[in-house]
Amino acid sequence: MLQSGGLPRELTVAETMRMWAGTCSTPRSVDEVLGEVDLSHRTGVRVGSLSGGEQRRLDLACALLNDPRVIFLDEPTTGLDPESRARTWDLLGTLRDRGVTMILTTHYLEEAERLADRTAIMHAGRIDGVETARRLGERGTGAAGPAVLIVTSHGRPRQLKQALAAGIPGFLRKTSTATEFAAAVRTVHSGRRYLDPDLAVAAIGAGESPLTDRETEILEAAGRGGSVEQIAAQVHLASGTTRNYLSSAMGKTGAATRFEAWRIARDRDWL
């Protein structure tokens, strides 16, 4: 289920569902699926005349027509009114309880917490492990709360500092030995903090970054390559604004190019 399904606007809801059923090997009853998404009373209405929320529900109906075992949902309740959103959550919760695997993207934290068994926070196109771990840690307190240990291949002082600031009790590199890993698990499980010893020393010796959060984000994007326009699109800023941030970061690092600024910042553990 995409953010915009692109269904033919000239067809009615019923015609759309019959067309979609023709692509399914074992389609469910059209009337049953439309009832689940509360569109039974709109079967004769053209898709182009539906409200934005109704079009989202029709997209969901198409996705459910083949009784899928796995379903991908891209912001399924965007544009829905609160009542329709709650009804959709109930439907998706029923599907989850029936054993349907759902991979869902959303901007609503309440939606993720209500529907997801596992959550991940995306930032600049990548999973933000520190933020995800922090939110997992907030799911309970004391003995009821999860003991969070980050095991990462991004073992740099900056990531360790971020984890500490987020209150994560354990941080370990993937290259650690089995003995170190076992010690970390036991320590965090007992309610104490465990930090990778080499990273802890490096973090103490690393100076504070002079880069702002926005400059850091833009430099990280610059390190992946691309034009200023492409970098601007990644960070959702205007090209001129992005150039200004890059110039500022280059000045702080003493670099002549944006890629050199990225390299220097990374060598100094600012990224």
UniProtKB/TrEMBL annotation:
- Could you confirm whether the keyword ATP-binding appears in this record? yes
Q: According to the lineage, what is the superkingdom? A: Bacteria
The record's section on PROSITE patterns has:
HTH_LUXR_2
| HTH luxR-type domain ranges (all copies) | 204-269
Keywords linked to the UniProt accession: Antibiotic resistance, ATP-binding, Hydrolase, Nucleotide-binding, Transport
One GO CC term of this entry?
A: plasma membrane
Might you give the EC number(s) for this enzyme?
A: 3.6.3.-
InterPro entries, sorted: ABC_transporter-like_ATP-bd, ABC_transporter_ATP-binding, CheY-like_superfamily, P-loop_NTPase, Sig_transdc_resp-reg_C-effctor, Tscrpt_reg_LuxR_C, WH-like_DNA-bd_sf
* Subcellular location field: Cell membrane
Name-wise, this protein is Doxorubicin resistance ATP-binding protein DrrA
Which source organism?
A: Corynebacterium provencense
